[in-house]
Amino acid sequence: MADLITVDDPEDPRLRDYTGLTDVELRRKREPAEGLFIAEGEKVIRRARHAGYEMRSMLLSAKWVDVMRDVIDEVPAPVYAVSPDLAERVTGYHVHRGALASMQRRPLPTAGELLRSTRRVVIMESVNDHTNIGAIFRSAAALGMDAVLLSPDCADPLYRRSVKVSMGAVFSVPYARLEPWPKGLEAVRESGFKLLALTPDEKASAIDEAAPHRLERVALMLGAEGEGLSTKALMAADEWVRIPMAHGVDSLNVGAAAAVAFYAVATGRPGA
Predict the structure, then answer these.
(1) The Cα angle at residue 178 between residues 175 and 179, in degrees rounded to 5
(2) Which of 115, 117, 182, 199 could form a disulfide with 191 if both were Cys (CB 3.0 to 4.6 A apart)?
(3) How close are the terminal C-alpha atoms of the chain, in Å?
(4) Most distant CA atoms of the chain, gap in Å
């Protein structure tokens, strides 16, 4: 059973895991270095625990103590009860959902380990917006993708914003960093995957025509918002694919495009 500790000093060193959560540059460096990440909201905290992540501590406003009582009773980690005002002073923002947990990271698998046991893989290059990372992971989980591979400069899937947008789906889809980049793409191909690069380029095949759902092993490559895949990544692909557009629209947000493409990869349309 966890200890329920009332804290009224925002400088209390026991709250250090939660300080400055709005400082993106600080947190993106500090959290991986210290082996932690922040789960926000009741559902996300429960999903992190269900996925097997160890809890370091919880920070709760008073009204959330009863809601999280079963978790408090189950975990040995300390639980800090604070006022909403103090929570805002510590974290740097108004914690709308009233519940935060500091969770312990786990070592990532290697790309090779994931490739041995999967058939439908997402590869992201330079996707450094945390909202897009979270949205893509949520769609990957919902639409049956098996794993995600990230170029070294992609954003952290366990950053608070990514976790929140994904509604905890980052805990459901295994992921690894693919290094070196883009040379690591050769290892993906050698593992039996066909590399499909998603691009709005008019030279690309319509994704239904490529019929990726009929292929034995597929790796779908996605680039950053705006810039898309780099020339080197495009040249490394086996085929370019695009989502057909109407009404003069030339492209979709990468999160929306990913969802459409994942459906085509994992399921496809009848008769396609």
Answers:
(1) 150
(2) 115
(3) 54
(4) 63
Write out pLDDT tens, residues 195-248.
Answer: 999 999 989 999 988 877 888 899 999 999 888 999 999 999 999 999 998 888
Nearest to 218 by CA among 243, 238, 246: 238
- How many Cα atoms within 13 Å fall on the side-chain side of residue 78? 9
**Segment (H or E) for 81:** strand 79-82
* Residues listed for the chain: 272
Nearest residue to 257 (alpha-carbon basis) of 270, 244, 240? 244
Within 10 angstroms of residue 49's Cβ, the number of other Cβ atoms is: 18
Q: Estimate the crossing angle of helix 130-142 against helix 254-266, to 10 degrees.
A: 20
CA–CA gap between residue 157 and residue 167 (Å, rounded): 12
- Distance (Å, rounded) from C-alpha 260 to C-alpha 188? 23
Quickly tell me which residue has 């557009």 as its tokens: 245
Which SS3 state, helix, strand or coil, does residue 217 take? coil
Task: Please list the helix, strand and coil fractions of the chain in percent, rounded to the nearest 5, in that order.
Answer: 40, 20, 40
Question: How far is residue 59 CA from its own chain's centroid?
Answer: 23
pLDDT digits over 103-130, tens only? Answer: 999 999 999 999 999 999 999 999 999 9
- List of residues 6+ apart from 264 with CB closer than 8 A: 207, 208, 212, 213, 272
DSSP category for residue 238: S
Q: What is the distance between the alpha carbons of residues 219 and 125, in angstroms, rounded to a whole number?
A: 13
Q: Quick one: 103 exposed, middle or buried, by C-beta within 10 A (0-12, 13-18, 19+)?
A: buried
